[in-house]
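Let us practice reading a record.
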Amino acid sequence: MSGRWLYADSSREMPEIELSGRNGMLTAATSGTRAPYSYLDKNGELAGFEIENVRRFAAYLGMDVKFDTMDFAALIPSVASGKTQLAANWVSITPERAETVIFSNPYYATASCVVTKKLSARDESVAAGFDFISWLKNGVQNNLVKENRWKLIVSGLGVTLTISVAALIAGTVLGCFICFLLTRRTKWAKIPASVYSAVIHGLPMTRISRFCSWR
């Protein structure tokens, strides 16, 4: 399979793989932007080494597969949160990422080079002690800038605000409805509202005694 995708003279043609789907659906996250691992072919269909690998895995399990395309930075969080069952993409294995998800055995190794600025005497003295500014910069880099993690925070903030607004509206509507029932003189309206109010307020004995007096 690697000969079909990972070499310069590769054919890079997705073979037909029959998926029965008798054991359910396998969900996989991928970016679709990193050839030859995961990309869109000339027909706009997902193709690549990882795509074929996942389809063969699904066929082995007797499942169908559904790919969810997303930003590369969202692949690992998608698996870690349970949104998808696995991620199919070219991903470098790092100790930090390995703390969140389980990687398959590596199948491709490449050399990399990191170039850094040589520290001056002042920089070395600062690094040896506590530097609040450096600590703050590292925190912003690790929690916001690295792998575009700020997008996850913004996305989570949007969900939080949506839930908060929905809860506020629902609580206001429900409160107005209960208040309306409590002001009615008919027992069929007032009694259920009073029981609800007793449970919510956490004073069941006081409310039950009042409920009995209405009878």
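A brief commentary: The first helix runs from residue 2 to 5.
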